[in-house]
Amino acid sequence: MKPSLSRLSVVIVTKKRVELLKKLLDSLQAQIMKPEEIIVVVNDKNADREGYLVQQYASLPISVFISATGGIPKARNIGIQKATGDIIAFLDDDCRAQKNWTKMVITSHTLNKEISIIQGRCNSYPRNNFYASLT
Question: Cα 84 to the chain's mean position, in Å?
C-alpha cells in the first residue's frame, strides 16, 4: 500500500522586501508539486505592499498575517500556529526554491514519518539570493 502524501505548509516571514518576496513566490509558483498552503507573515504593521503583491498569486494557496512587534521569532510562531499541514517548512523572503523543492520535502517526510527535522542545502549567491534544495 502506497503511503498517503504529507501536506506541506510553507511559512515565509518578510518585512519591507517586496521585490525579494515576489521572486520567492515566483519560485513557489513554478514548483512541480504545490504546497498545501503558503503562510506569509509580514513583520510590519504597514503591510499594504505585501498584501497587494500576494493578491497577484491567486493560483497559490496564500494567507497573509501581520506581526507588528516581536521580530522574526514571533512572526515564525504565528506561522506555526496558523499552519494546517503535516510538515512546516520555513523559507526566508530572500530565498528561491528549486523546482523540485516542495516535492522533495513532501516525499522525504512521507517516506520517513518518524523524522522531525529535514534540512536542505542552501546555495548562497550574490546579494543574499539563496536557493533551497534537498539532495
Answer: 13
Cell numbers linked to 97? 526554491
Nearest to 69 by CA among 78, 81, 80, 59: 78
What are the cell numbers at 51? 498584501
With a CB cutoff of 8 Å and minimum separation 6, the contacts of 80 are 11, 88
What is the band of 36 on the pLDDT scale with cuts at 50, 70, 90? very high
Are residues 10 and 91 in contact, defined by beta-carbon separation less than 8 angstroms? Answer: yes
- List all residues 6 or more positions away from 125 whose beta carbon is below 8 Å from its beta carbon: 131
Pseudo-torsion of CA 95, 67, 76, 88, nearest 10°?
A: -80
Answer yes or no: pTM beyond 0.90. Answer: no
Helix (H) or strand (E) holding 2: none
Q: Mean pLDDT over residues 8-21, rounded?
A: 90
What pLDDT was estimated at residue 124? 55
Cell numbers linked to 60: 497559490
